[in-house]
Write a structure and sequence with these properties.
This protein has 156 residues and is of the alpha/beta class. It is built from four helices and seven strands; from the N terminus they run H-E-E-H-E-E-E-E-H-E-H. It has helices at 2-5, 28-37, 97-108, 143-150; strands at 9-15, 18-23, 43-51, 60-68, 73-81, 86-88, 111-113. Strand 1 (9-15) and strand 2 form a beta hairpin.
């Protein structure tokens, strides 16, 4: 991969038998496509994010876990993006990305351009905030939504 993408591959390593790759967000779509088409990684196992609220510039890591049935191996691909930035959808590469990207959007607020149905998947559409961001307090909830839709006051 390094030969093809050069400096777009920020890091490639193996740790405890697991392969890791960190790529620039501008080439993540191309690298994912190459892993499927050229390297035989035919399954997107998981897609998640990590929020580093105090990190300058790129506050989010987006992590793709890929699996090759033929090779019986996994690779973790990571990219970093800024708050408010979007990544291209991986739905066209692996249909399993559909709900995984919606969950990342719901919990972190990260958008995936070209996604066929980019909306919340776990929380109601009118929920305020994204619960897995660091600034979302551990006891915080949308008390207004709970009161309006459930007719109760917060139990906190």
């Amino acid at each position: 991969m390094k030969k093809v993408y050069g400096s777009g591959i920020r890091e490639a390593c193996t740790y405890l038998g697991q392969n890791y790759l960190t790529v620039d967000s501008s080439i993540v779509d191309d690298v994912l496509q190459a892993y499927r088409d050229d390297e035989g990684f035919d399954y997107l196992v998981d897609l998640t994010a990590v929020h580093y609220s105090k990190r300058e510039g790129t506050q989010f890591d987006v992590v793709y876990i890929l699996y090759s049935f033929a090779k019986n191996t996994r690779v973790r691909l990571k990219t970093q993006i800024a708050d408010g930035a979007a990544l291209p959808t991986a739905v066209k590469i692996w249909p399993t990305a559909n709900w995984l990207e919606r969950e990342v959007f719901d919990m972190f607020g990260i958008r995936f351009e070209g996604h066929p149905d980019m909306k919340r998947i776990l929380l109601p559409d009118d929920w305020k905030g994204h619960p897995l961001r660091k600034e979302y307090g551990i006891l915080q909830q949308d008390t207004e939504w709970v009161h309006i839709n459930l007719g109760i006051e917060s139990a906190q």
